[in-house]
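Worked problem 6 (solution included).
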Amino acid sequence: MSRAFKASEAAEYLGAHVETIRRMARRGEIPSFKVGKDWRFRETELNRWVETHHLRQRSAHILAVDDEENFLNSLRRMLHDAPYRISTVTDGMQALELISRVPPDVVLLDLKMPDMSGPATLREIRKIDEKLPVIIITGYPNSELMNEALQYSPFLMLPKPVEIKQLIDAVDLALNGSKSKGAHAGRS
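Solution. The predicted structure is:
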């Protein structure tokens, strides 16, 4: 009889972050079944799945939200050679629609945007998925907007202009939970 793993055990077994495994289970991307509020994974089904899939081969989906199209183009160029798929939108409402339809693995979010601010967008993101990793990239790290965003932690913060190594380290930290230099955790 096949052993059933809890999400944390499956994550360790596959060498992945537990929230990545849960997200994949919610999306039906990995064989799983629900017990109570958490997911379970049969060892034999995981072994079969691993033969044709590998977590490291699956590119993470990054959603960048910023009202400056030039900055979004810069992010696309920075992440071009990284193992990520990147989607970009120019406002919070578009971000929320996309997150509801095609949930990303990480959100890169600007604080200062017209119509719906970064903190307001973050508040709504947390209603959809409270554990979705968010990295705030802002030119206003010491602003009232940042103080407002801190209410919806946890998130990482990078100052603009962002350097490619900082960005990739922060995305890796958000995806894998590994230690990284250059990313600063927000606290509530």
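Discussion: Strands lie at 4-6, 33-35, 38-42, 60-65, 84-89, 106-109, 134-138, 156-159, 184-185.
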